[in-house]
Automatic annotation (TrEMBL), chain A:
Protein name: Anti-sigma factor antagonist
Residue stretches making up the STAS domain: 1-108
InterPro entries listed in its UniProt record: Anti-sigma_ant, MlaB-like_STAS, MlaB_ABC_Transporter, STAS_dom, STAS_dom_sf
Molecular-function annotations in GO: anti-sigma factor antagonist activity
Entry superkingdom: Bacteria
Family: Belongs to the anti-sigma-factor antagonist family.
UniProtKB/TrEMBL annotation, chain B:
Organism: Rheinheimera pacifica
Keywords: ATP-binding, Chemotaxis, Kinase, Nucleotide-binding, Phosphoprotein, Transferase, Two-component regulatory system
Protein's recorded name: Chemotaxis protein CheA
One biological process term in Gene Ontology: chemotaxis
CDD domains linked: CheA_reg, HATPase_CheA-like, HPT
Taxonomy of the source species: Bacteria, Pseudomonadati, Pseudomonadota, Gammaproteobacteria, Chromatiales
PANTHER family linked to this entry: CHEMOTAXIS PROTEIN CHEA, SENSOR HISTIDINE KINASE CHEA
Amino acid sequence: MTIRSSMFNEVPLLHIEGEMTIYTAALLQQQLQLYIAQYSELELNLSQVSDIDSAGLQLLMAAKRQAANQGAVLRLTGHSPAVLEVFDLCNMAAFFGDPLIIPDVSHG
Amino acid sequence: MSLNLEQALQTFIAEAYELLEEMETCLLQLENNPADLDAIGAIFRAAHTIKGSAGLFGLEPVVSFTHVVEDVLDRLRAGDIAISRTLIALLLECGDHIHYLVDVVAVRAQQPDAAATEREAGLRQRLQLYRQTSVSEAVSTTPGVSAVRQERGSSFDLWHISVRFGTEVLRNGMDPLAFLRYLNSIGQIVRITTLADSLPELSQMDAESCYLGFEIDYQSDASKAAIADAFEFVRDDCQLHILPPHSKTEHYIELIKNLPEQATLLGELLVASGALTLKELEDGLQQQVDAALKPATPLGEILIEQRFVEPELVQAALEKQNQIQEHKSKESRFVRVQADKLDELISLVGELVIAGAGANLLAKTSQDETLYEATSTVTALVEQIRDGALRLRMVPIGDTFNRFQRVVRDVSHELEKQIELQISGADTELDKTVVEKISDPLMHLLRNAMDHGIESPAARLAAGKSATGVLKLNAYHDSGSIVIEIADDGAGLNTERILQKARERGLVAATAQPSEQEIYNLIFEPGFSTASAITSLSGRGVGMDVVKRNITALRGTVDLSSAAGLGTKVRIRLPLTLAIIDGFLVGVGDASYVVPLDMVQECIELADDSKAAAEPRHYINLRGEVLPLVFLHQHFNTGGGQRRRQNVVVVKNADQKAGLVVDELQGEFQTVIKPLGKLFSNLRSISGSTILGNGKVALILDVPSLIQQLAQQQVQPRLALQTPALRN
């Protein structure tokens, strides 16, 4: 997993690439903590997440909660199919409340 | 994926193959003894375990198909459907298909091809028959269920699953999400709420601990045991509550009380899912409070509550315990070791033996008594290590034999013959590599025996035999080798026909009169087949020569005996191991040769007078027996002067004895067999080489082939000279 960060209108944008799993959770936790402590607004782009497991999911939940407690805004954007599948499986879309772009699934 | 998972997958694959084999064996048992409940249980467990483990690895095709099979098996186990020949045949096919799926999906990570999908659809359809009949039966015989449904008057017929995963789950390599996916494969998650009440603050949490829990409303036809077993791998590491559809209100209340979250939260969830009405919830919670106020016999209440527990749950728990115990006892008895690690160990032991022999030799020449004694002890220990290491590779041949039960069953159906396979000596052990390589030749011989040997039931009855043909597989140890016998009680070989065929093909000269044994051996010649009709099984004339070649490649021999009308027996003789043998070192001129010690019967001195007599005749009188001799000096054209005193090493192979005339007896020697290169593949009398302690190379004598050559040499002069006196 790699995390690419950039600033957009003074809001940090973190691109998470690769797997958000138990193997990378500790590193991700550290990074998220750092950013949430520093900024009042933060965007996580999940479009390049190839794989997410329970560790990744609960980390996102904790981060979202932490941000809310501090009055900060944590936005999740560009959910990759892997992320969407897990959110759907666990019925977590409402918890995060970020707009999801449902991929066009043709029923034919 | 990570390395750990890859390893686990390999374990799954190996386990799945074992389970499928067990399933097959049990099915065949069941065919003979339909009342065998243990066998049904074992088959069910096999299918169940495969499904469960496959679910963990997300092997969707395996899970979904095995689920259907398991369902039928479950009904079979419960006695809802009766065992029948067609059902066994169907389940055997299903086993094959699961094997195929594991092969494709788990081993090669591919999707099943079109033909397989079609086959699966067919199987599913046939399985469906067994599922449907049982469903209608079940409904008609349990009127209580519908009554309960009406009584509750709600549309609620979902399972409720509450699960809180333990913190160690993730670190143990499990992913809670995998369990949800698995649930979705044997049913449907209708509603799910992810609970993170125990999730600490971001800065406090341990990213590798699991804090998740789920409340699930679940729709499935599966039994409670099956649903509970979905969580089998985390059973000790999670809090799991499963409430069947139409559970009593008290049970839900009890559940709420037992869970760590606030009662109101869970109550709301249950109300939302329709399991409880708001009123029921309030009443129930109030009752709990009342009960808590009165200190009256809470334990008794709990016990009474327990009686309400569905019988399935009790059964599941008992089964679970049994399984764990079984598993544990198995685990403590076996260690799974990779074959190449074992091979590495064996080759190291081989080097150790050579090095030990070198040290021993040096000690001997140094004339230092204590040193010699020390190396002798080391040598003795090395010998034990060698034997122990080789024994690690020994496996009983029974597994291979049992596999043939299925072959015999299928082939006899195909040929419309009645054939019974009798197995004996299944415990006989031999080297794993040999077992693997002997399986194909054995299969061929069996098929041959079934196709050509055993007659049709009508022909058998006409010949005054029972309609059912008997095929016997037997294995036993005999002087350092293992003997495998395949015997049938069929028509026997027709020597006339074989000879006629052989003459047609020019394998035998038109005037030659070969002995019976020689005629039998003709069928091992390339391109020989006596079957007038070619069947799909045998009769194409490929086979017997390949069988012989394969066995020869294992340093084994094959011979055949037959009696017209009574049957045929094929006897395969194989060395126990391919790597290290006990040898007997002999000196001939400047060179050393190794004779496998197991074949050495005795050593005698060749006295001068008997030597003078023996040399022209090539045999001596050994206690009244004629012992043919091989003068190794002449045989190998060895350099170096011939000693005046010579010795005879009497060797025996398969009831034939011979004497090897050598110059010097050098004693026992642990021999690490080094195969000869391709260049020497046509060399007869030599089967390999070995390295002596002093670094010199010694050749290992191929005693069977030496004896064979000897027999041929003796026949020729006899025929040439036409001396009938020799026969007496």
